[in-house]
Design a protein that fits this description.
Length: 258
């Protein structure tokens, strides 16, 4: 068959077309796979960058939005981001806009936001040329700070009050004081440097001593708590017991460092 024969040209063209299609089919999956892998890697990297920020925010931050304040040129409302009782971010979720207000808002709000974080208060300087916006900003900011302080004061104070007695209260027993009618020994409970409870762990007993002890000890216990020291009055008809009680009480106070 001659090289220029029409049938030969058709066969050669068909063979070239088939070869091209086979080549394209063999290359296309590899290309798609590479693209998918690249996209997956990019998404994974983005997720890895976002995850720590999201975790940190969830762990220790909260947002507080102040009351919306009406000004001559529009509404201003401030939102604070708070972490561990401190303002870490301030932003205006509403601000005057339209006409010249757009320019004034763009000029003043970023400066006000920065100053809030720096001062941690509503005592910030008004921006020249945006007096009304600055005034509304400070009012809304103050209401947000008030909300923030109220939230911070609620839970911690309750837990601290519950933990304080257990952490600071202690019991101290004084030395035994020997009297003519028997030993006297006093034990006190002290919290925050004050006597909250006093009791006699030993006292004269037997015969008339039982009656005198029953009469004297409760009064001495009460007076020790009321006075906060060993300078208490002796109980009539129980002079020896009262004297021994005060001696043991003083030694207990000395041990407690009161």
């Amino acid at each position: 068959m001659k090289k220029s024969h029409p049938i030969r040209r058709v066969l050669l063209a068909s063979a070239a077309t088939v070869s091209g299609i086979v080549l394209l089919l063999s290359l296309k999956p590899a290309t798609d796979s590479s693209s998918a892998s690249a996209q997956g890697a990019a998404q994974g990297a983005a997720a890895a960058q976002e995850s720590p920020q999201g975790g940190a925010a969830a762990a220790g931050t909260s947002t507080v939005t102040g009351a919306a304040t009406q000004t001559e040129y529009g509404v201003v409302q401030v939102r604070l981001t708070v972490a561990n009782g401190k303002i870490t971010k301030a932003e205006a979720v509403q601000a005057p806009h339209g006409g010249t207000s757009d320019q004034k808002t763009a000029l003043s709000v970023p400066k006000l936001n920065q100053e809030v974080v720096a001062t941690q208060s509503a005592d910030i300087t008004s921006v020249t040329g945006a007096t009304y916006t600055s005034g509304g900003y400070k009012k809304s900011l103050q209401s947000a700070i008030d909300k923030m302080k109220a939230a911070n004061a609620a839970a911690p104070s309750q837990s601290s009050a519950a933990a304080a007695p257990a952490a600071q209260a202690k019991t101290v027993t004084g030395n035994v004081a020997t009297t003519q009618y028997g030993p006297v020994q006093v034990r006190i409970t002290v919290a925050n440097g004050k006597i909250t409870k006093a009791e006699a762990v030993q006292a004269p007993s037997g015969g008339t001593s039982d009656q005198k002890t029953a009469l004297a000890i409760p009064k001495l216990n009460q007076e020790a708590v009321a006075a906060g020291n060993a300078n208490i009055d002796s109980v009539s008809s129980a002079t020896y017991t009262s004297g021994g009680y005060k001696q043991s009480l003083q030694s207990a106070l000395d041990k407690a460092g009161v």
